[in-house]
Amino acid sequence: MISSHRPVVQARVRPLFFVAALALAGTSALTFGQDTDAPQAPTKPEIIVGPVSVYSYSPPESFVRVNADDASLAQILSDLGPDAIEWYQHVQTLSNPWFEGRVPGSEGIEHAAQYIQFWMEQRGLTPAFENASDRGATAWRQKFELPGGQPKEQSVALEWNGVTARKDEVATLKCSASADLTAPLAFCGYAIAEGKDGYSSFAQDEDLSGHIVVVFRGEPLREDGKSAWGEDGRFTPSSNLKQKIDALAARHAAGVLVVEPPAYAGKKSNLATLPIGQLGGARDMPCLVVDAAYAESMLTAADPEHRSLAALRALADSGEAKTIRFPESFTATLSAKLDDGKLVTENIGGILRGKGALADEWIVIGAHYDHVGYGYYGADADNRGTLHPGADDNASGTSGMLLLSKQLSEAYDAMGDDADLRSILFLAFSAEEVGLNGSRAFIKSPSIPADKLDFMLNLDMIGRLRSNDLEVGGVGSATGFLDKLRPFFEASGLTIRADPSGRGPSDHANFYGAGIPVLFFFTGVHDVYHKPGDKGYTVTPQGAKKVLDLAGKIAMWRASDTERLVFESATNADGTTRGQDRGYAAVRLGVQPGMAEDGAVGIKVEGVSEETSAADAGIKAGDVLLTWNGDELASTAVMMEKLRACKVGDKVEIKLLRGGKEETVTVTMKAGKARGG
Q1: How many domains is the chain built from?
Q2: What is the crossing angle of helices 82-94 and 73-80, to 10°?
């Protein structure tokens, strides 16, 4: 499909570079990449000033269908020109499944970092950071640790009488200790200390010292594999795995092997991906998950009666049998090794050095290159385990940043050595999806003088321009900013949704919070936002070309304008925030969401703002928010939806995990107070 607002034409598209400065309303507007030989479609530009909800802003589609059998993609892209082609190729590459959804800590995001660094080098940029291991040397990467990391399995093995478990038959729980252990076996059913009607898996004063204990997940089952205790077969809190491990630890088990009972019809979640907090924190004993078939072969061999797993389940279901200890002559050997759980990721930065009197002043052009991987956080629960390519979010912005590094490098070369131009730092942020961590790390340890930074331009989701409608946030973040931007907006031919606020759920917010003027370019959400369908073929290079033409002109204006921007908080005299602070809800919870590992459930709280709804309810840093009025908080996006549905004074029941224990707090929703820079 192609945009109905601009016909595809055969045209000579020149490289995008700085051509001339034109006087427009007293400011310098740049003819940046415009092909003067190509016929221009008539446009009716419009500037709409006011708050924009980034979670609901979704312009209508405005494309026309073409005959797929007759259309030439090569011709369309050729008509759009080499820069649109390059942008499109970058997006296709970064959203390829080989990059694994670019989740921090994965091999895929390292491939993406190498790709970005390669193109920065190709554009003649210089490394932006100091090499921490070689003081004075430069580096392309800025390393930082993510909060809330989880231990990761480095190796695991299980063996009995020469029968070794395959890789797919054994895994470590994240709470497991690293250990090498050979010991006899015991079977403790469902490992429930106190259950319904006096049920217990243990004899009084049970001591499991020196034994590797095999236990079932779940709780006593009906014939159909559902819970025998819960209403309509639902599982009760007695099935909680943390409680089982607590019970075994209290009885001094040397090691734990968790097995799914035969015909189990409960939730089939992967226990090896459960976060350490839900399992009660780090344990002193190795804790493994074992395939049922392998466990059955081991137990049948160990048991003098050679009972099957189904027979053992029947005993555990009835409650007749307590712990079964197998002969000490039969032993199993297990080995588990986990890392310390620290997760390190990197920002990538390259510098286009300025010239003349402005060379020591700076512009930052940034985009986050991470995404949500296989959807274990920041995505719908139904899509967990499915690759999320992240083409629009945010291969599109990263590709735009790379393209601008080419265009602006060419523009600087064309200006000559006697020009006065600010230096530009091109930054690719990691870990944006889990709490704006990359930009926060940069603000805490900037590689350029913060007091010399003129403004920051953030490109996040610029790949789906529809109806020529673009949000530009931050137009109120500098004195007179909107008036200075108007000529560029009007010349773009786009409808500009000009939001004064410099806050929002993307990396520019951290710069704004540090007192730096910002602009945020955003083409809106859509039906595949944070979903597996956000694939490369869905983006629109013709729209990206228009967005980047505007971004490039603004960047060149800021690069050459001798007058520095003056930061201004987008706050009215009455204390309310223009743009409604983040523009997505009438109320504010007041938590800073942090990192959640693969398989994690809930939202990790990295910080709580004073005098907010969360602070009043006693929510603390380190808590994990699990449910909202009984609904699972699968991602920050889900939490935003819940917030948008609230009004001031509403009471919300939030279940959270604190210190390995679940608690429920009542939160009375308050309006968000304006927060200036």
Answers
A1: 3
A2: 120
